[in-house]
Design a protein that fits this description.
transcription; single chain; WH-like_DNA-bd_sf; alpha/beta; DeoR-like_C
Length: about 240
C-alpha cells in the first residue's frame, strides 16, 4: 500500500481492494494504522501521501525483491575470503541479508553504522564489532552525521559493502538523504575496495543525494532484473559487474 502511495501520491480503497484482493473494511483498517504512524493521510475513499513520504521506511521494504536480494547477498559473502580481515557495512535491506549470511569461522572485524545489523552481529563471538555512533535515521536504522563521519575518518578497512537507492553510469551512486550520503561517502573513503549491492530496480535510478561518482565504485552486484544497457554503461565506466 505504501509502495503504491509513493508511486502515485494517492490511492483509493476501491483500487487497493481490487489489487490486493482484500475487503474494503480491511483496507480501511490498514490505512488507519498507517495514518496513526504518520505515514499517510486518509481521505474520503482512500489516502494521500503525508508530506514526509519520499522513501519507504525500511521495515516496509524488507519483503520487496526478497529472493533477488538473497542471491545478491550470497554472491557478496563469497568475497569475504581469507584475505579479508575487516569489512564495513552501511544499512539497507540487501546489506542486512549479507550480514545474516556472514559466518567466516575466523576472527573478522566489522564496522557498521546500522543499528539492526549491529544487533544481529553483536552475538557472534568471531565478530569484532565496531559501531560508529551518530544520530539515528529511523527510515534506515542508520547512524549518520558528524559523529559517524569522524569515526569513519580514523579507520582503514579491507572491504566495504554499500547499499544504495540508485546507481547510474552518469550520476554515480545515490541515496534519499543528504546526511546519509555524506556518511556513506566517509565509509567508502575508509577502504581499498567498494562493492555496491543493488537489486535490479535500483539500476539506472537516481535518488536525491549523490554518495559518490561511479569511478569510486569497484564492483556492483545486482540481479537479472537489471537493465542490461545500463549495466553495459556501468561496465564501460570501469566497474566490475556481477549478476547474481
Amino acid at each position: 500500500m505504501l509502495e503504491r502511495l509513493a508511486e502515485h501520491g494517492s490511492v483509493s480503497v476501491v483500487d487497493l481492494s481490487a489489487e490486493l484482493q482484500a475487503s474494503p473494511a480491511s483496507i480501511r483498517r490498514d490505512l488507519q494504522v498507517l495514518e496513526e504512524q504518520q505515514l499517510l493521510k486518509r481521505t474520503h475513499g482512500g489516502a494521500m501521501a503525508a508530506e514526509v513520504i519520499y522513501e519507504l521506511p525500511m521495515r516496509y521494504r524488507g519483503g520487496r525483491s526478497q529472493e533477488e536480494k538473497r542471491r545478491i547477498a550470497q554472491a557478496a559473502v563469497r568475497l569475504v575470503d581469507a584475505s579479508v580481515h575487516s569489512v564495513g557495512f552501511n544499512g539497507g535491506t540487501t546489506i542486512t541479508e549479507l550480514a545474516r549470511l556472514l559466518s567466516t569461522g575466523r576472527a573478522l572485524k566489522v564496522v557498521t553504522n546500522a543499528l539492526n545489523i549491529a544487533a544481529d552481529l553483536s552475538v557472534r563471538p568471531a565478530i569484532d564489532l565496531v559501531v560508529t555512533g551518530g544520530g539515528v535515521r529511523p527510515e534506515s536504522y542508520e547512524l549518520v552525521g558528524p559523529i559517524a563521519d569522524r569515526t569513519l575518518a580514523d579507520i582503514s578497512l579491507d572491504l566495504v559493502f554499500l547499499g544504495v537507492d540508485g546507481i547510474d553510469a552518469e550520476a554515480g551512486i545515490s541515496t534519499h538523504d543528504e546526511i546519509e550520503a555524506r556518511t556513506d561517502h566517509c565509509l567508502m573513503r575508509s577502504t581499498r575496495r567498494v562493492v555496491v549491492l543493488a537489486d535490479g530496480s535500483k539500476i539506472g535510478h537516481r535518488a536525491f543525494s549523490r554518495i559518490a561518482q561511479i569511478g569510486e565504485v569497484h564492483m556492483l552486484i545486482t540481479d537479472a532484473g537489471a537493465d542490461g544497457a545500463e549495466l553495459d554503461r556501468i561496465r564501460a565506466a570501469g566497474v566490475e559487474v556481477t549478476v547474481a
